[in-house]
Amino acid sequence: MYSIGKFSKICNVPVKTLRYYDDIGLLTPSYIDPITNYRYYDYEKIQVMKKIMLLKSFQFSLTTIKELIESANRLQWTSVLDDKIGDLEGQKEQISKQIEEMKLLKVQIEKEAPIIPGPVLSSCYIENRKEIIVYTIREKIKIKFIDQFVKSLFDRVYAFNLVVNGKLMSIFHERDLNQKEADVELFLPVKDTNKIEGCKILFGGIYACTTVKGSYSELNVGYKMLGSWIREQNLTQIGKGIEIYEKGLVPSNFNLRDIRPDLNSLPSEFITKICIPVSKN
User: Distance between CA 21 and CA 23 in Å, rounded?
Assistant: First the structure.
C-alpha cells in the first residue's frame, strides 16, 4: 500500500487532484484508515491512474473517463476510442494542411511573391457583337463609391419598370489614379422600350475580347494583354473598352427593388469580359 503522498509522487499527480478524484468517485483509495482517515492505494490503482491520465491527455471529459473506467464492456471502449481516433485523424489532416499553407506563405514572403494568385486570362479573340438597347448613367465619381453608383443604376431601372435582359456593363472613359476618380458609364441591356431618357443604342461591330478571372483591381492585366494582341493582329482600336461583368459582386439572380452586392463572392472567382472595338487596317 502507498500513502496518498507516496502515490502522488509515483503517479506525478497532485494530492489535491487525488482527493478530488476520490470525491467524484473517479479513483477511490484501496483502503482508508478508520481512525486517521488516511488514504492508501495499492499497485492496481497505479494502473487505473495511468489510464485516467492517458484518457485525459486525449481530451476526454472526466465524466466520460469515469464511465469508461467503471465499464468492463470492451465494445464501449472500442466505440469511444474509435470516435476519438476519427476526431484526431481529422485534426491531423487539418494541422497538416495548415503546416503546408504556412510553408507556402513562408516561401512567398521570402520571395516577395503575391499571396493571392494573379488573374487567369483567356486567349484573345474576335467577336462580332450586335447593337443592343441599354439604359445608361454616367458620372465622374470616386472609385470607392462605385457600389453606390451601381445601386443608383438599378434604382432607376426599377423606377422606369424596365426589363433587364443582360449583364451589367461599364466603360471607364477616364481614370485618375492619383485622385482615385474615374469617369464611369454604366449600362444595363433592356428590352425594347418607349423612348425613355437614359436609353440608347450600344452599337455593335467587331470587338477584340478576352475574359479575366480574378479581382477587378487586376483587370489592367487583361487590358494590357488585349492591347498587345490588337497591335500584333494589325488591328486599330476605335473606341473605349467595355467591361461585361459575367460573375462578380452583382448576383446572377438580382432583385431590382433591392439590389445588394454578393459579399459571399470571392474576388478570385470574379469573371469579367473585356471587349474593345476595333477595325481592320
Answer: 5
